[in-house]
């Protein structure tokens, strides 16, 4: 018997958490038809000997809602073994929307997620009003990997209440309207509903985005309608750095919503606290543990390394003085020429010397190095300020030297969450935590954590050995499939959908982040490729081979209602 594709003699880690087996996988159409010893030949065959063969990874926290309109391969995550992306997180999305609401949603996305508004307005076709029509538009563009989308609370509020949705609470009738539209969105193909509680997410005028301060009754009413249709609830909580009373209120809100909605909850989780606030790990264990004891399916997602800003000559995250701001206003080619000019460079250095703000930034910057892969695991004391001090220089002077040595290509990392690796490991070890939170598609010129899956495998599995490979794969495949309610993905088995990775575990890693000017309107963004991916298959189509895209696009829309699988 012949097959469309056979992957031969790989170390199959099937996603269930069980030990690997050496064997073959046969794929016909978009389905795995045999696992084990496949005797039939494949029209195409991939030699996986010595490599890990896994289900495709799932990224449960992206903001690719705009980028997918002009980049159907959803880079950077499709370079890192991801075959399913969840969009619409944090309450921000682009539907439902009336024609007079396009600019509001674009400006909100720019303010919250740092995606240029004009890029959004010009780059998207805006040929939809309902959330289902938005998904139809995405589908027409034939995505490279699978997409699941959530309808956002902010868009719902603005659609129903207009400008009043920012500052006022809805009437009882308006709450019912939002609940009905959310339910209809699930029937049209959304996989869930997202809401924001984080006060830092603001509109351009400084007000928090619609729904952030919504009363408990509103969230419960909407989620009840969503849960009745089988949709999930996603929340970004107002928990980092808050006191116990606020934390407990947030968790009580989640619990009440879940009790009435009867659905699954996914929330963003980090490890960092501020000042004398209680440990978030202790608070998570207490509150999430209580919900689990009550039988509520609650899950969190966290990035498996330090997350934060990137600093380099090609983006604008660097020192700020009068002359540094002049440098910031230049295009890259002029910046490089300017720092090569000794007189201009000395002016930059002199203004930064003894400048408290410049020193403060230098203390946060850790060089990513000049090796094949970026180094995210430096001790936080191994920063630009201390390195420069050893050489009797200021941080800005050493920063400029590194830029000159690399022709402006090198980058520094300025982490600001999940700062302590031991705490991150403890959080990753919780059964209810899914690795992710890379924010793909957002903060496009300052943050690039999209390669989290490659770091997770390279650092936690291979380099430190602290997380066994079968468990790591389970956390990136069958566990997120459970969160999303997908019964036909996340495990390698006969009859399952053919989302598969072939990975060289000796090589898998992130490559250095780079700046590209490939967004609509010539806008810049960070991207990050990977190494060690022999192949990625999405619904039976090989979309990546030897770390490069093949041109194949195998993705479909995964969701509720008419798109349920």
Helices and strands, with pairings:
Blueprint: E1 3-12, E2 21-28, E3 31-36, E4 42-47, E5 52-55, E6 57-59, E7 82-87, H1 102-113, H2 117-123, H3 131-140, E8 146-152, H4 153-161, H5 164-167, H6 172-187, E9 192-196, H7 216-228, E10 232-236, H8 244-261, E11 265-268, H9 280-293, E12 298-302, E13 307-311, H10 322-328, H11 332-340, H12 342-352, H13 356-364, E14 366-367, H14 384-390, H15 395-405, E15 412-417, H16 421-428, E16 433-435, H17 452-463, H18 469-476, H19 478-484, E17 500-503, E18 509-510, E19 514-516, E20 525-527, E21 530-531, E22 533-538, E23 541-545, E24 548-549
Parallel strand pairs: 1-4, 1-5, 6-7, 7-8, 8-9, 9-10, 10-11, 11-12, 12-16
Antiparallel strand pairs: 1-2, 2-3, 5-17, 13-15, 14-15, 17-22, 18-21, 19-20, 22-23, 23-24
Helix pairs in contact: 1-2, 4-6, 6-7, 7-8, 8-9, 12-15, 14-15
What does this structure look like?
Strands 1, 2, 3, 4, 5, 17, 22, 23 and 24 form a nine-stranded mixed β-sheet that branches. An eight-stranded parallel β-sheet has the order 6-7-8-9-10-11-12-16, sandwiched between helices. It has a three-stranded antiparallel β-sheet with strand order 13-15-14, covered by helices on one side. The protein has two domains: 57-305 and 418-485 and 495-503, TIM Barrel; 310-416, no CATH class. It is α/β, with parallel strands linked by helices and 565 residues long. The model has no long low-confidence stretch (mean pLDDT 96). It contains 19 helices and 24 strands. The two termini are 28 Å apart.
List the keywords:
nine-stranded mixed sheet, single chain, 19 helices, alpha/beta, 34% helix, TIM Barrel, 565 residues, 2 domains
């Amino acid at each position: 018997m012949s097959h469309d594709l056979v992957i031969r003699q790989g170390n199959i880690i099937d996603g269930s958490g069980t030990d690997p087996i050496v064997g073959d996988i046969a794929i016909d159409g978009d389905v795995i038809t045999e696992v084990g010893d496949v005797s039939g030949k494949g029209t195409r065959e991939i030699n996986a000997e010595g490599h890990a063969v896994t289900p495709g990874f799932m990224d449960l926290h992206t903001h690719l809602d705009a980028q997918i309109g002009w980049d159907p391969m959803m880079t950077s995550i499709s370079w890192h073994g991801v075959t399913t992306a969840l969009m619409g997180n944090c309450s921000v999305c682009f539907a439902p929307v009336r024609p007079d609401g396009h600019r509001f949603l674009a400006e909100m996305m720019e303010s919250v997620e740092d995606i240029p508004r004009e890029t959004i307005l010009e780059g998207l076709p805006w040929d939809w009003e309902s959330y289902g029509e938005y998904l139809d538009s995405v589908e027409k563009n034939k995505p490279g990997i699978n997409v699941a989308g959530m309808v956002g609370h902010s868009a719902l509020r603005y659609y129903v209440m207009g400008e009043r949705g920012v500052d006022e609470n809805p009437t009882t009738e308006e709450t019912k309207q939002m609940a009905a539209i959310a339910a209809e969105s699930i029937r049209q193909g959304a996989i869930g509903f997202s809401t924001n509680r984080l006060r830092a997410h603001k509109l351009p005028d400084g007000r928090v985005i619609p729904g952030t301060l919504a009363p408990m009754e509103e969230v419960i009413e909407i989620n009840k309608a969503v849960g009745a249709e089988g949709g999930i609830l996603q929340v970004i909580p107002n928990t980092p750095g808050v006191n116990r009373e606020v934390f407990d209120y947030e968790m009580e809100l989640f619990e009440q919503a879940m009790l009435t909605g009867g659905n699954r909850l996914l929330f963003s989780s980090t490890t960092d606290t501020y000042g004398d606030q209680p440990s978030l790990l202790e608070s998570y264990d207490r509150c999430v543990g209580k919900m689990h004891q009550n039988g509520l399916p609650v899950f969190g997602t966290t990035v498996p390394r330090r997350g934060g800003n990137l600093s380099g000559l090609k983006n604008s995250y660097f020192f700020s003085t009068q002359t540094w701001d002049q440098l910031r206003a230049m295009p890259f080619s002029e910046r490089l020429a300017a720092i090569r000019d000794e007189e201009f460079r000395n002016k930059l250095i002199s203004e930064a010397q003894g400048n408290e703000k410049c020193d403060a930034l230098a203390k946060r910057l850790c060089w990513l190095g000049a090796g094949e892969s970026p180094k995210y695991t430096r001790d936080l004391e191994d920063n630009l300020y201390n390195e420069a001090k050893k050489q009797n220089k200021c941080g800005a002077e050493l920063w400029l030297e590194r830029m000159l040595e690399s022709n402006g290509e090198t980058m520094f990392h300025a982490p600001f969450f999940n700062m302590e690796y031991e705490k991150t490991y403890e959080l990753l070890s919780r059964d209810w935590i899914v690795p992710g939170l890379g924010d793909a598609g957002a903060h496009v010129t300052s943050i690039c954590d999209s390669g989290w899956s490659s770091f997770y495998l390279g650092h936690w599995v291979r380099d430190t050995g602290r997380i066994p490979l079968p468990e790591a794969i389970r956390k990136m495949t069958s566990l997120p499939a459970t969160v999303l309610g997908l019964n036909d993905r996340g495990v390698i088995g006969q009859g399952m959908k053919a989302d598969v990775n072939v990975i060289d575990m000796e090589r898998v890693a992130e490559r250095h982040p780079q700046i590209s000017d490939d967004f609509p309107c010539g806008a810049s963004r960070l991207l990050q490729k990977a190494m060690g991916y022999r192949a990625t298959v999405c619904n039976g189509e090989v979309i990546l081979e030897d770390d490069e895209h093949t041109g194949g696009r195998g993705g479909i829309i995964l969701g509720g209602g008419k798109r349920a699988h």
